[in-house]
Specification:
233 residues, mainly beta, Neuraminidase, 4-stranded antiparallel beta sheet
């Protein structure tokens, strides 16, 4: 299905992560901002330039710095708690997603990490080349630097390769019934079999990060532009 895009403004070139919050999004950049679907922004917290991965779980936002240290942000009042010893198994965390009541870490292995600090290795294979991971209908979809996309069953972590066609892609989003891949074009991919087609003919290979809400999805380009996308049905 055709995908339309709308420019919501520039100046977001320091962005490292986008996180959904209802129909708004969090932009983790030089600071933490909350941005509405119209592009209006409000600064919520300082010092988020080194965030390498982030996810919301319950009423908290978990952010991972380059050092591997976690910060836990309470969304009710924006209180920030440093969690330097929260997870010490590895410092190189490539992707972080929330599922059910825990976080899933993609690194040299895959871990489940609970809010009380308990962690369990659930897959021993090397996932250190993960570029992006998203959750859709009980599965994780993982993009690797090789351009391969894998589908993981989150009940037992069995996985299969869906595609190896996305060598220049940087990020994925799960929106409605499809997975969207930001590469040399914006691709729409069937999550069942990996078949894909062009949703928008434009070069999105320099996309930094992307996220979906229930009504739109968003991406930040390396030139600092924040884009909002919609699917024409």
């Amino acid at each position: 299905m055709p995908v339309t895009s709308e420019n919501l403004g520039t100046g977001w070139d320091k962005t490292t992560q986008l996180i959904a919050k209802g129909e708004n999004i969090f932009v983790l950049s030089d600071a933490l901002y909350e941005v509405s679907p119209k592009g209006t922004s409000e600064k919520k917290a300082e010092n988020f330039t080194e965030t390498m991965a982030a996810a919301t779980l319950g009423q908290h936002l978990y952010a991972v710095k380059k050092s591997g240290a976690f910060a836990k942000i309470r969304l009710e009042d924006w209180f920030i708690e440093a969690l330097d010893e929260f997870f010490t198994e590895t410092k190189q965390i490539n992707a972080l997603v929330a599922y059910k009541d825990y976080l899933i870490i993609f690194a040299d292995k895959i871990w489940e990490l609970y809010p009380d600090g308990r962690s369990t290795v659930v897959d021993e294979e090397d996932w250190s080349t993960t570029k992006s991971a998203v959750i859709h209908n009980g599965y994780a979809y993982v993009l690797k630097t090789s351009g391969e996309i894998y589908k993981l069953n989150l009940e037992d972590y069995t996985h299969k390769k869906l595609s190896d066609d996305f060598g220049v892609a940087n990020t994925l989003v799960a929106f409605k019934d499809y997975i969207y891949v930001f590469g040399d074009n914006l691709y729409e991919m069937n999550p069942l079999n990996g078949k894909h087609w062009i949703g928008q003919e434009d070069d999105w290979s320099k996309t930094i990060t992307a996220v979906a809400t229930s009504t739109n999805f968003y991406a930040v380009h390396s030139d600092g532009t924040l884009w909002k996308f919609d699917v024409v049905e």
